[in-house]
Amino acid sequence: MDLLLLNQTDVEALLPMSECIDVIEEALRALARGEATLPLRSIHWGPERRGALGLMPSFTASPALLGVKVISYFPANLGSDLDSHQGVVLLFEGERGRPLALLDATSITAIRTAAASGVATRALARPDAGDLAILGSGTEARTHLQAMQSVRTLRRVRVWSRSLANARAFAERESRRGKVAIEPIATAREAVAGADLICTATSATEPVLCGEWLSAGVHINAVGACFPAARELDGPAVARSRLFVDRRESALNEAGDFLIARREGHVTDEHLLGELGEVLLGRLPGRTSPADLTLFKSLGISVEDLAAGHHVYQKALAQGAGTRIAWGGVRS
Q1: Domains of the chain
Q2: Would you say residue 329 has pLDDT above 80?
Q3: Cα–Cα distance between 138 and 33 in angstroms, integer?
Q4: Which of 58, 112, 198, 311 has the most other CB atoms within 10 Å of its CB?
């Protein structure tokens, strides 16, 4: 029995953003239909909380698959030559439990997270939205720019980072790569002024986006804060928005943007309107007027990793990509 190994270069070549957006949309639809199951992720912190190890298993009915992402999180890697998120996605077939593939999780995480924001933007943002503000200048800022370009025609792009030098470097690099002019902005408030699309992709634990700065009709993808004690948005920003999440149970346990706003009295549980998959299936209204402020709070869920990994695996088989190694599992 063979196991297919797909490294970072393989995944990036086989998972273009436009394809991944469609893959993640169907995964979120399947989750809303009850065709996928997943427990809450398990996060284990190491000594002095310098880094954490996350375990994220999931199962899907069609196709019959199971898998797990094992990923490390070392925030001190930010600004270095290593990503803050590194690990593997292990894919199994669901009929007899055979391991199929081992895939790089850094690339899958970066692409599928932005792809989920692309799905949310396509479903919730105004059709004419095209003034984009990105808060953050790391890996997710880059992939979110790609996702927003895939689903909307961008008229203007601004980027803010806590380091203006990093914002300038991002703007220069991505302007060349993406053939779109990007403006580095000194403050977050200036960056979002008048924007109708905002993506927050920072490592902040305290708010970098305030409700009083938001223009009518804006759509926000909030992806950076993924722990109960961390947030990128203040309470008024959450309270002003129609809030949707990738998965309700995850948000009620892990989404600091929502949990802290609730603790402060800005919102109640009823403010969380539902899951993005329910909007996609037509079970919930998303945007109800051009003036609505819509918010997609993304935590990243393992069915997204499973769906993206399976898509990459199928393409790799068709193209003869990756490296095969002999594996066990056969009764001796």
Answers
A1: 2-109+302-326 (3.30.1780.10), 124-297 (3.40.50.720)
A2: no
A3: 34
A4: 112
